[in-house]
Write a structure and sequence with these properties.
It is built from 8 helices and no strands. The protein has 194 residues and is mostly helical. It folds into 2 domains: 90 residues, Orthogonal Bundle (Rna Polymerase Sigma Factor, Chain: A); 72 residues, Arc Repressor Mutant, subunit A, CATH 1.10.10. The longest helix has 33 residues. The N terminus is likely disordered.
Length: 194
């Protein structure tokens, strides 16, 4: 049985050194240390490949993790005949990231359509009056709800980005936004009926 190579392997895209070849051989032999060593060795490369497609740090991390787990569970997906390990892993991660992005775009479109169906729209008659009404309606929200609305609709942040910025769970952010939109719909509807 091979000893695990140092976790300080430097990735060189031009050539595969002895430590990288040991990781590749361990990966082919399905030795647990090799999967960890592959992660340590190539994590920046793999994360970069995922992030370049997904543009979200946590999604990129999840993508890399899921690909490595799936390869471990699937078994003999990689052989030296398929090229270098770093190239193989990069292709796997990029393909998974593209699949996630396609699924995510569809999910985002569906969520946007749901939101648009019940969205709060300012009166179209007078843009200045509409802005004033929306601004006054925002005063009916709690500070955390107003902050979440500001970050989502004025700053254009995703739920995950808002959660990171506020140091709150994503579920809390989604709940605040949902409650805030419900309050705004009610307040604006009452204003139209007056």
């Amino acid at each position: 049985m091979m000893d695990a190579p140092s976790s300080r392997i430097r990735h060189s895209p031009k050539s595969s050194g002895p430590e990288e070849r040991a990781v590749e051989a361990g990966f082919v032999a399905r030795e647990a240390w090799a999967f960890e060593a592959a992660y340590v060795t190539y994590r920046r490369l793999l994360y970069g490949a995922a992030y370049g497609v997904l543009h979200d740090a946590s999604d990129a991390e999840d993508c890399v993790h899921d690909v490595l787990i799936r390869l471990w569970q699937r078994g003999h997906a990689y052989t030296a005949a398929r090229g270098t390990l770093h190239a193989f892993l990069s292709v796997c991660v990029r393909n998974e990231a593209l699949s996630r992005r396609r699924r995510g775009v569809n999910r985002a479109r569906i969520e946007r359509e749901k939101l648009d169906a019940g969205a709060v729209e300012p009166p179209a008659d007078d843009p200045v009056l509409g802005r004033m009404i929306v601004t006054q309606s925002l005063q009916s929200l709690t500070d955390p709800q107003r902050q979440a609305i500001q970050l989502a609709y004025y700053d254009g942040l995703t739920h995950e980005e808002i959660a990171r910025r506020l140091g709150e769970p994503v579920g809390t952010v989604k709940s605040r936004l949902s409650n805030a939109l419900r309050v705004l719909r009610r307040v604006l509807a009452e204003g139209k009926n007056e």
